[in-house]
Design brief:
disordered N terminus, RNA-binding
Length: about 1100
Amino acid sequence: MADPSIPASADEQRKRQALSETIDELDELLSKREAASRHAPPTEIEIPVLDDRLADFDPALFSALPGRTPSAEPAPLDDKIKHILSQELQLVIDGLRASVATQIHEALRSGGMPSAPSERANDIPMPSDSDQTANDQQPEPRIDAPAESPAVATPDGTLAKTYDPSGIEQKWYRFWEEQGYFAPDASRDTSYAIMLPPPNVTGSLHMGHGFQHTLMDALIRYHRMSGAAALWQCGTDHAGIATQMVVERNLAVTGVGRLDLGRERFLAEVWKWKEQSGGRITQQLRRMGSSMDWSRERFTLDAGLSRAVTEVFVLLYKEGLIYRGQRLVNWDPVLHTALSDLEVVAEEEQGKLWHIRYPLATGGGYVVVATTRPETMLGDTAVAVHPDDERYRHLVGQCIRLPLTDRLIPIIADDYVDPAFGSGCVKITPAHDFNDYEVGKRHDLPLINIFTIDASLNEQAPEPYRGLDRYEARRRIVADLAANDLLARVDDHKLQVPRGDRSQAVVEPLLTDQWFVKAKPLAEPAIAAVEQGRVRFVPDNWSKTYYEWMRNIEDWCISRQLWWGHRIPAWYDDRGNVYVGRDEAEVRRQHGLPAELALRQDEDVLDTWFSSALWPFSTLGWPEQTPELARYYPTDVLVTAFDIIFFWVARMIMLGLKVMGDVPFREVYIHGLVRDADGNKMSKSKGNILDPLDLVDGIELDALVDKRTTGLMRPEDAPRIAQATRKQFPQGIPGHGTDALRFTFASLATQGRDVRFDLGRIEGYRNFCNKLWNAARFVLLMTEPHAADSRAGDSALGLPERWIRGRMQQTIAAVRDGLDHYRFDLAVQAIYEFVWDEFCDWYLELAKVDLNDPERDPLLQRGTRRTLADTLETALRLLHPFMPFITEELWQRIAPIAGRDGASIMTQPYPQPIRARQDAAAQATFAWLKEAVLGLRRIRAEMNIEPRKRLPVLYHGGDERECKWLAAQQRYLCALARIESLAAIEPGAAPEAATALAGGMTFLIPLANVIDPAAERLRLDKEIDCLSKERERIGGKLARPEFISKAPAPVVAKERQRLAEVEQALNQLSGQRERLGRL
RNA sequence: GGGCGCGUAGCUCAGCGGGAGAGCACUGCCUUCACACGGCAGGGGUCGCUGGUUCGAUCCCAGCCGCGCCCACCA
């Protein structure tokens, strides 16, 4: 126990207090779990093992807890370490709180932990005997058996009136995962595989992930349901620089640098951080419904993947495709590491152009050179002019006395110089500029490196400037030049400033020893693979971008002066020899090195993208020849954004071809970036970030503002961001559920453009969920009481049934087509229109007509019920890849009625279109019927006729077919148009009436006080006007001989047909118009 | 400097050689027994501009205007 006589610091007291509060919370939780388990045994609430985790921390602190004894004597700890550890302790406490709170919350939400089960039971009314169905065997919500997959129901067994996503989503995800549905079914004949672009292990979900994962999950679910062994390989990336920076920043708060800790202890810190925050992203992916195979989750620093990295490095080295050399590289003076070209972003900034006089060594005059970086003059080793420049030709070969130094440097001639720019003289600094480096090589110039790794001036610089930061040195040098009258002029000048993409530090070209991948030999086959179509970009124009880069590729600098990553498998002896091998033992063996020869391993690690490039095969077990590797490589499609085509896609193709001898994927689907409603890139600093989970769960305004304004790089932006946020979301953001969000993403996934995320869209699709929910509610209401009857026995199909079944087939074809061509927007639109505009707006209304009619033939009624159930069930399967949760919930209820067995919609077959069922005749009949209904409704609406009022309707005209249709289908027409009576009249006997047309048939609603003749005249005139214009347009077209002779026959025929229709309609309308008389 | 993409209804976007579409927003009527997160009906667009190809152009071609992105060493 801690000695109570020693007074604890306030800080320590606070921590003890926090700890004991946590313990209390956990105790409370334990007792809750115990209580819950009496009612609902399988509900698992995982209590993190507190003792193990706390044991890592200050034993003194730990031993202060009530009832705990120290396991060992407190070891003396360095103060700094102590500080860090206690900070971490706080993190752990916070983490535990959050995790426990979330679990309780989720358990309560999903009904796993009923707070008062006894009261609930009392509220459930007993179903009447007549209502007994198979489902009533479990009248109570089946909280005790999640595997039984209960639908959310009100106590009487019907669905709630409004769809509530929060109640079902997590429950179903857990169910699927427990059932192992995410793992590919190896018994299938075909396979389908997608590699998840591994997110940063310590990152968190953003809109880009949400978008991308929605699309990948839709594809995976589609192919899984289509019968393929569908593998979605998941995992996380160690994200070298990004992760190391975060940990360093955390340490910096305590005043500890990574160098203070040393490599081993620092890496231990990074691993701890990874353990703490590494689970968040995967939990968030689960919330999106992503059906990836968690059992195969990988991490780029796993043993297996690390082995693959080493193997590939050794392989490439042996073939001479990896080499070590001293070259000019992009150096980040803040992070102290080399960067690849891709990690450097150039931004235009306002700078200056200094014109400096360089005196000739002869003493006779000077030349003027212009530079944006005057401090680099200390490293100049030449001045260059263009060989054809008459002004300077006589000076070539002479020397310059370099100001501020004692050095003499030559004037050389090189094509690189543009005589038209500036004075036509360029200072050459081979050690600090990529172009000058090349010039230097051509002219065999010496390299003078004047910078340290911090980009301050080193001992190569003249004494007065040594140790100065590069910008301070610039000020001094400019001042000194001016003082010596060597500064000719200073201009404002826009220039491209290269910055490290992580640190934002201005990158310095620096001469260092680095490892490189020779890119050209790898790029050639990779270019060919795309040219030959072995890898296909969708949309195709991205292949152009790919070619562009690949054909101008430079060697890839792969060594990084970091600690977090794969250490380079190279060893050095004292004599400067380098040995590359899988490990030190192998190196010694292969090179016959004596044990007494000391070897030290290269300190550097590899670029994160090196391991990422191996992802498609390293995750499948390479270098072992695993069954998975044989089955799933090459994978089918890579889904990603264009911004990592170079970083990742191109490198995967190059190394896949090199190592595996085949492309890593056959298609690359490139999607747009998610932007905010105004088209801006979402970023923390702009304060316009949306968290996908906030769209799912909803968030209060204050919490949203907090979220957007904490942890800003520039805290002064906070008020502006807060204000903008309050303006844009005055009510906060309501929860819409994962399904609505996913559907929205899919609908926005059009080709070749970025995505502006607009809240209006997600609201609309949330409403669609509710629509679907209520359609299902209606179908269940109609079918559940007759479930047994609906499944068995003969049935007959009426027109509405034949029509909707036909439309279903067309919809299936459209959705599949969309999915097959990565047109998620079209797929989703087809199904939206089917469900809402046709199934709900028309078919359900037609079905009501038959089901509410006691006279209706029972066979036909059975056909209607069966069609309701079948169509809904099929639509749910069709929709499932986009909206996994609501479809599962509803499917569980509807599947038994539709005669489908299965534990989950996930394992059901995806609908296939059956052409024969499209039923063109039923489509035509229905189109006519719809036209009639719409025409009559329009009259009612425009005449302000009471909606409920039934009206007498007369009709005349129509061809034989239409008369037959009317005779057969008038029950629907009368119901949907609220017709009281329907009677045929002779065309000449038409009374004054309002007119509606359907094909060649005229429907009339006699005036009889309900129709205002003036209003009808106006309405008709408008209609006639519209048709006349149409007639004129088509007529004009048909009047042109060139049209008749040159346009394809079907087009001409179609126009003729339309003209005939328009003329017929005009005839009918103008006859009726005349009867109404003049105004 | 090179390359790519985008300008269609108030907003977000489909359509891309022969009748201008959707969602949201807007207007009117309707709390009809699945749903007001709803129903029914309606208003709204010289499809950026100018030429060309074509019997016919929002759609193809050229140029221009505006917007965005990527690549690139002009000191």
